[in-house]
Amino acid sequence: xxxxxxxxxxxxxxxxxxxxxxxxxxxxxxxxxxxxxxxxxxxxxxxxxxxxxxxxxxxxxxxxxxxxxxxxxxxxxxxxxxxxxxxxxxxxxxxxxxxxxxxxxxxxxxxxxxxxxxxxxxxxxxxxxxxxxxxxxxxxxxxxxxxxxxxxxxxxxxxxxxxxxxxxxxxxxxxxxxxxxxxxxxxxxxxxxxxxxxxxxxxxxxxxxxxxxxxxxxxxxxxxxxxxxxxxxxxxxxxxxxxxxxxxxxxxxxxxxxxxxxxxxxxxxxxxxxxxxxxxxxxxxxxxxxxxxxxxxxxxxxxxxxxxxxxxxxxxxxxxxxxxxxxxxxxxxxxxxxxxxxxxxxxxxxxxxxxxxxxxxxxxxxxxxxxxxxxxxxxxxxxxxxxxxxxxxxxxxxxxxxxxxxxxxxxxxxxxxxxxxxxxxxxxxxxxxxxxxxxxxxxxxxxxxxxxxxxxxxxxxxxxxxxxxxxxxx
Length: 474
Ligand SMILES: [Zn+2]
Hints:
By secondary structure, this protein is α/β, with parallel strands linked by helices. The protein is 40% helix and 17% strand. It folds into two domains: 338 residues, Aminopeptidase, CATH 3.40.630.10; 113 residues, Alpha-Beta Plaits. A seven-stranded mixed sheet has the order 1-2-4-3-5-11-6, with helices on both faces. Helix 8 crosses helix 13. The protein is globular, with a radius of gyration of 23 Å. The mean pLDDT is 96. The structure holds zinc ion. The site of zinc ion has 5 residues, from loops.
């Protein structure tokens, strides 16, 4: 029988290694798809831990798969390690103070994310060793979550297809199993080309790519009313055609994001956006080229796997923060606006949970929230979605930050290698490993998870990016 004490003990046994990883990756803080030192550190550590490591997966130098054990079930843990530009911050400092001005920092907590997921793999390895059970444990080193979307290429290559169960987590301000979805997202460049001319002397000879791009914006802004309200369209002028008003612009590039709760809705809306772009080109006598450069699927929670993970989370409990953690978190809370602090209640609502689960006075989330399965898409987009289309996937949040803290902020970097993040990272590792062990122990659990997965996905993954698109290594 699976006992929580075994997982507490094994988390303690692996504690040193997990926290060393957490700290080292915080220090490296490398850009997406360029996490060379971080990946090398992981690969060395995992080999020392007895994992076999395949490097350079899916044509990405910093993608790797570490594997231990043999036979079924095959259990995967997804780790990320990339950082964000402009979020350098002194560790443990509760006022905004850059460590290196303008540098990258772990403002989304991916140092902890990877360390916790690798920790889960090590804990499950130890558990299988101790109990003499068969099974394969994999840790996926997934680069570029923030930029480049490594998992999409790994998913397109079928790297997750043979998993019986896949687990991951994300640093957050709450402790919860994620029963909600996130938005599918497509990144597209629209390049309009026309003909230059003197804008005063002979404008009739010009064909303006800038006019086309502006008319595309007008068309898309009208389109908004006639797409599902959950969808999102945003655009930025990647190249506005130069700085001279007296030259008719002959080349303009606009970068669009098309998001929707389901990939199929996103692709429908994308086709309509393409029609608007073609219409704008027709109106202006220009040409348009359309290039998808990024695509992410929505996330599909798996209630079967989530049930075991929730059981594990409730047994192991929220991270046991101490007084020092509480003090740090309180000081961080003082840097947040009232709107920031209130946002956690909107999040609870979107997750289908009661606002009364937390109090406005709470500094840290000291409980495990109840599980709530909802069709709602909460937050932005992530390439975990693509893994979730390939294999039954369960994802948790663990509180590495003060309540009300938003990801992609210096406050996240500040706490990233303090006791707050460390305790949550160890908790996340133990919860994911124990959740997997509970599913292994329950007869037919993986078959049921797979059946649920088949019903939710139609049994097939259609990668949203074109087959010929290569990873953008920056
Ligand atoms: Zn993140």
